[in-house]
UniProtKB/TrEMBL annotation:
<dbReference type="InterPro" id="IPR007214">
    <property type="entry name" value="YbaK/aa-tRNA-synth-assoc-dom"/>
</dbReference>
<feature type="domain" description="YbaK/aminoacyl-tRNA synthetase-associated">
    <location>
        <begin position="55"/>
        <end position="172"/>
    </location>
</feature>
<dbReference type="GO" id="GO:0002161">
    <property type="term" value="F:aminoacyl-tRNA deacylase activity"/>
</dbReference>
<protein>
    <submittedName>
        <fullName>Unannotated protein</fullName>
    </submittedName>
</protein>
<dbReference type="Pfam" id="PF04073">
    <property type="entry name" value="tRNA_edit"/>
</dbReference>
<dbReference type="InterPro" id="IPR036754">
    <property type="entry name" value="YbaK/aa-tRNA-synt-asso_dom_sf"/>
</dbReference>
Length: 185
């Protein structure tokens, strides 16, 4: 006889199939995704947010899920300026890594630090892997990778590791107030 309250679906090591339609709807209505949708609407934009079945935590994963070039993925990375905890958002093409020494020199600071998960969450309101270029609790100093201008369409995170939306370099410049810069090679 099974113990009272036993639920096989809650047993360790047991995974149940997920209804992909349910998952898509749940992610689409996630509060962070709704925040991104609302922030874009404030700028007159209403792109269709795409829900990927696999995670888009990295540019490579997002590109594979969308069947696009990795360079078309706009990664939103948070760094800190010098020895401070002041956040800096860098919107970079997935085709290369950010050259932190180059960006630091261009900004006139000694170095950039990689922000930890707490700084990322506090600065952006999002967890690592779902950081969107928009919908942050307060405006962030933002740099945009000039390499993104090579693409007609780029894809950015929409507040959840499975949610992305199409945009353009010009739209990102407009809605974020970002400073264009070469950030890698």
């Amino acid at each position: 006889m099974l113990p009272e309250g036993f639920r096989p679906e809650a047993s360790p090591g047991r995974t149940l199939p997920v209804n992909s339609l349910f998952m898509t709807e749940a992610i689409s209505k996630h509060p962070a995704v709704e925040r991104v949708r609302a922030a874009l609407a404030l700028h007159g934009l209403s792109p269709e947010i795409t829900i990927l079945s696999d995670s888009a935590r990295s540019a490579k994963e997002a590109a594979a899920g969308l069947a696009i070039e990795v360079g078309q993925v706009c990664s939103s990375l948070i760094f800190t300026l010098g020895d401070s905890t002041e956040p800096l958002l860098i919107l970079t093409s997935g085709r290369h890594r950010v050259d932190t020494d180059l960006v630091a020199r261009n900004l006139g600071v000694t170095h950039l630090g990689r922000a930890d998960a707490d700084i990322v969450r506090t600065a952006t309101g999002f967890a690592i892997g779902g950081v969107s270029p928009v919908a942050h609790p307060a405006p962030l100093r933002t740099i945009i990778d000039e390499a993104l201008s090579a693409y007609d369409v780029v894809w950015a995170a929409a507040g959840h590791p499975h949610a992305v939306y199409p945009t353009t370099f010009k739209e990102l410049l407009h809605i974020t107030g970002a400073q264009p810069m070469v950030v890698g090679d």
